[in-house]
Amino acid sequence: MALYVSSACFCGFSQKRVERIKAVASEGFATVKTEEEKVKLGGSDLKVTKLGIGAWSWGDTSYWNNFEWDDRKMKAAKGAFDASIDVGITLFDTAEVYGSRFSFGAINSETLLGRFIKERKEKNPEVEVAVATKFAALPWRFGRQSVITALKDSLCRLGLLSVDLYQLHWPGVWGNEGYIDGLGDAVEMGLVKAVGVSNYSEKRLLEAYEKLKKRGIPLASNQVNYSLLYRLPEENGVKAACDELGVTLIAYSPIAQGALTGKYTPGNPPTGPRGRIYTPEFLAKLQPLLNRIMEIGQNYDKTPTQVVLNWLICQENVVPIPGAKNAEQAKEFSGALGWRLTDDEINELRSLASETKPVIGFPVENL
Ligand SMILES: NC(=O)c1ccc[n+]([C@@H]2O[C@H](COP(=O)([O-])OP(=O)(O)OC[C@H]3O[C@@H](n4cnc5c(N)ncnc54)[C@H](OP(=O)(O)O)[C@@H]3O)[C@@H](O)[C@H]2O)c1
């Protein structure tokens, strides 16, 4: 109980400082300006911004948004999209299952993203957007043709002729060979610029890499859960394998679904399904790490969110894709770019984080 009260007090004090930093930063949010600010995705020719925006929450009513979707939330999501483009973040990550009826969603995230792109292009036809979406390896989907069929449906919802990155969302329960063949076919048909996987173990990553390599197609990325709070990729060989093979690690849930932003405290835990993971007890144990993140951030005039995203970018070969529900959140992400923590700070934060029990990951990682 003592820890609960004292850490909440400290957090409240620091939170005011964070709000001041946010207010100052909002006067001139960093803008990702040039092509040089982009990175190549693995061995592909696709260049993307060093940070992308996750669109899982757009239209979703199964995990996010307190099971409700309305006009206000849609306007906020559009605000997130427009603000991202305004600050120069042009990579957006979605999936056929986000917001879909299959996952009890209100409106498909791909449909929303496609709509936002169309509206933006009507104002500025030159605007560049890199779209990453994903194939759901559902147990009743077999073989390479299922990948192409699903991809064409995604393109239809997005209103696009091709996407920049097409990923297998999770490993198939019956095997992956047909799906990998389907990815290769998609490249050869000109429907995608680059292909990747997601939630793939070191072994599966290597198999996918080798199979595509035989067709002369680089495996561009592996999208996995990675944050200061979830460092499994460092422990299970996935990060090392990505580095060795030249496959970009795309980090999902990089701010631990809001827990690393400092806004959730033992007295103010998140609502909905997140509340079961980031409980008041868990958040109380997180306070020493959050306090240090805030202190380090203050030295750079950066918010905790910007510090933890910078920590990921400093791991090299990592592109984080934090989810943004509104313009403010998206703008704040841009402040994670253009500077770097010192090696001592990076190591100190990892070591402090290792004192917190890891959260439970997405079960598909263990398929
Ligand atoms: N491949 C996969 O299996 C997989 C799995 C999960 C996610 N993903 C992808 O990764 C993306 C990001 O992961 P995620 O959405 O799970 O988690 P996340 O990026 O770690 O957290 C996103 C949430 O944090 C809160 N937030 C965002 N910016 C904030 C800010 N500046 N200040 C305070 N709070 C902020 C928002 O929720 P509140 O405002 O409600 O707190 C937001 O929805 C997803 O959108 C999706 O594209 C992929």
TrEMBL record:
Keywords tagged on the record: Chloroplast, NADP, Oxidoreductase, Plastid, Transit peptide
NADP as UniProt keyword: yes
GO CC annotation terms, alphabetical: chloroplast; cytoplasm
Subcellular location: Plastid, Chloroplast
Spans through the membrane: none
Domain of life: Eukaryota
Pfam families: Aldo_ket_red
Single annotated GO MF: oxidoreductase activity
InterPro entries found in the cross-reference section: AKR, Aldo-Keto_reductase, Aldo/ket_reductase_CS, NAD(P)_OxRdtase_dom_sf, NADP_OxRdtase_dom
All copies of domain NADP-dependent oxidoreductase, residue ranges: 50-352
PROSITE patterns from the UniProt entry: ALDOKETO_REDUCTASE_2 (PS00062)
Record protein name field: NADP-dependent oxidoreductase domain-containing protein
Provenance organism: Vitis vinifera (Grape)
